[in-house]
Amino acid sequence: MAKKTKKVEVEPQIETMEEAVTEFFEEPVVEEPKARERKVPSNEWEIKDRAYYLKGNKKPLSRSIKAANIYYFDEEKGYERELKYCQNQKTPFVDEMKGDQRLEHIVFRSGSLFVPRNQQTLQKLLSLYHPHRDQLYYEYKPAALAADEISVLEMQVDALVAAKNIDIDMAEAIMRVEKGSEVSNLSSKELRRDLLVFARNNPKLFLELADDENVMLRNFGIRAVEAGILRLSSDQRNFLWGSNGRKLMVIPFDEHPYTALAHWFKTDEGMDIYSNIEKRLNE
Known about the structure:
By secondary structure, the chain is an alpha+beta fold. It is built from nine helices and ten strands. The N and C termini lie far apart (142 Å). Mean pLDDT is 82; it is low at 13-38.
């Protein structure tokens, strides 16, 4: 009887241990991994209405662009993927499509195409993946246009402020690039007016000229030629003294004559000639 009693005491202990072990090592339920989402090549995709316009001045009544047999190189996957616009599919990628594929046309009417926010497949095809994006057509982006306009306006302000504070000699040098020898016949007020108009209408070029250290020297050379102190040969290969036709300098091949003269004025020999010409101009 003692042996039976011992067995009865042991058996529940074994069962209790087995239950404890089973509970301790119970494996958590692991969900099946989801398919890895492809990264959209944009900082953030916004669901909204979008408009697209054909590039260029021509606005045909209707213009179709390819909706099939086009490809997009997926850098994450490392190969080209076929694209197709099917209205009954949730993706423009053929390898992600399911079921029947009903091909739809992509047509611009009078040079434009409006795509509402509920047509995300077409929007992503046109905005992100289509190979003719920014070639045949572009997406209208008001925020980007506003940023560009702000940059232009700020550049205009900088140019106008610089033009207002620039000295008269530099103003003449800059305007000579724009108007040529006509500048010599302008009064100081006319020169100032034309300079401000030039800075407003072409601020980028104005600022480049204002920062160009050779503008003054080029203008100096042009004034010397206009005054007859120097003379540019008919083949534009040499600068000569106006009084005796003696050769002063040879213009390097494929370089603008007055740009070459400006560079030459910075040499030791050129600085002496510059001083000589300056005295004659001021007589």
